[in-house]
Specification:
Blueprint: H1 7-24, H2 28-34, H3 39-47, H4 66-79, H5 81-101, H6 104-115, E1 121-124, E2 140-143, E3 147-158, E4 165-171, E5 181-187, E6 193-198, E7 209-220, E8 224-225, H7 231-267, E9 269-270, E10 273-274, H8 279-307, H9 313-338, H10 349-359, H11 366-377
Parallel strand pairs: 1-4
Antiparallel strand pairs: 2-3, 3-7, 4-5, 5-8, 6-7, 9-10
Helix pairs in contact: 1-4, 4-5, 4-7, 4-8, 5-6, 5-7, 7-8, 7-9, 7-10, 8-9, 9-10, 9-11
The structure holds acetoacetyl-coenzyme A (CAA).
């Protein structure tokens, strides 16, 4: 058993840490307040190879492992979870699925620009009436011979207006239930495809979340990923890796809030001492540190299983469940430690607390993670 990061992992961590401090921290409060998409920052992340981290260099990616991905997600999310969600969705919900299940032509046309960061991708599964109950797809893709006719609405889509390439799950044959769902690649600009208004959110406010409307959109047959009816399995298999990304995002939000709390506790004076001298604060910091370390180990273990070609669905769900619950608890305590300062924007912890909440919801709520975990337990 090896608990040490490799030299390469340490270099990647330093690069992501430096990027977060120099490129993400300035302006993060303003972007949150004005719901401003981090366009420049995402462009630079693409140039650094962070948008196609695990994609093979043959398709324009960086060829890194999933542990590196987890490390980068943690470091970026310590400072700006609105940016890290773009990284996560592009890497694990879009690039990974295209590389693993796409045809050679789809990889050349769609994966290469996504992995190089020239374009951004979106993953479109959720609908107004299908969130956790993802098999209940109401969006339809009628088979018209050489193309599908796509109709319906998708909700809460990350990168909704900034993406160029959308992977859309839609029902082709309702009689087959989830086995009649297809995953289709839809391009921005296709006739009948419109983007709804931006959602006004509690957290990750810099990220770009929209509903999408499809009215008689003609999607060529060659844009279907996998065999006819593979769409639901595609979505589930892709989400397994996505959950490592969001677990690592939650880990980063927690560790960002923790690091700010340690620093504040050492500086702030109360009752003639620093906060760090008070046992009430020491115990809070001890609990935070312990939970964060446990969350990190769960993230790395899920990533290691994936890197080694072993089943990782349960491990990814455990990591996401624990890390997101840790993020929520830790950020609430971080605000408490900061007292009145924690309640104002300049100290960052209130934003981290708001950002933490979504990690318990997207890419499968905590309740969905418990379903996945308990099914494995009871197998
Ligand atoms: N890999 C491959 N196939 C899988 C799978 C996996 N990990 N998990 C399930 N499947 C297959 C099953 O084998 C089954 O196929 P067969 O019937 O052919 O054997 C099929 O999928 C249906 O599976 P279930 O019977 O388990 O389906 P279910 O209705 O009980 O639900 C669920 C399963 C786990 C609850 C699933 O619906 C789920 O994960 N829901 C949550 C959806 C979700 O995470 N949404 C997030 C939206 S994306 C997002 O947030 C992105 C963003 O922008 C940030």
């Amino acid at each position: 058993m090896q608990f040490e990061l490799t030299e390469e992992h340490l270099l990647i961590r330093q690069a992501a840490r430096d990027f977060a401090q120099t490129e993400l921290k300035p302006g993060v409060i303003e972007r949150d307040e004005h719901q401003k998409f981090p366009a420049e920052q995402v462009k630079k992340l693409g140039e650094l190879g962070f948008l196609g981290m695990m994609v093979s260099p043959q398709y324009g990616g960086s060829g890194m492992d999933a542990i590196s991905y987890s490390i980068v997600m943690e470091e970026l999310s310590k400072v700006d979870a609105s940016t890290s969600v773009v990284v996560s969705v592009n890497n694990s919900l879009v690039c990974y699925g295209l590389e693993k299940y796409g045809t050679e032509a789809q990889k050349q046309k769609f994966l290469v620009p996504l992995a190089q960061g020239e374009k951004i991708g979106a993953f479109c599964l959720s609908e107004p009436e299908a969130g956790s109950d993802a098999t209940s797809q109401h969006t339809t893709a009628i088979d018209m011979g050489d193309h599908y006719l796509l109709n319906g609405t998708k909700n809460w889509i990350t990168n909704g207006s900034t993406a160029s390439t959308y992977i859309v799950m839609a029902q082709t044959d309702a009689s087959k239930k989830h086995r009649g769902i297809n995953a289709l690649i839809v391009e921005k600009g296709m006739e009948g495809f419109t983007v709804g208004p931006k959602e006004n959110k509690l957290g990750i406010r810099g990220s770009d979340t929209h509903s999408l409307m499809f009215t008689d959109v003609k999607v060529p047959k060659e844009n279907r990923i996998g065999e006819d009816g593979f769409g639901f399995k595609f979505a589930m298999a892709t989400l397994e890796g996505g959950r490592i990304g969001i677990a690592s995002q939650a880990l980063g939000i927690a560790s960002g809030a923790y690091e700010l709390s340690v620093q504040y506790a050492k500086e702030r004076k109360a009752f003639g001492k620093t906060l760090a001298d008070l046992q009430a604060i020491q115990f809070k910091l001890a609990d935070m540190a312990t939970e964060i370390e446990a969350a990190r180990l769960l993230c790395y273990r899920a990533a290691w299983l994936k890197d080694n070609g072993l089943p990782y669905a349960q491990a990814a769900s455990m990591a996401k469940l624990f890390a997101s619950e840790t993020a929520m608890r830790t950020t609430v305590e971080a605000v408490q430690i900061h007292g009145g300062y924690g309640f104002v924007k300049e100290y960052h912890v209130e934003r981290l607390m708001r950002d933490a909440k979504i990690t318990q919801i997207y890419e499968g709520t905590s309740e969905i993670q418990r379903i996945v975990i308990s099914r494995e337990v009871l197998k």
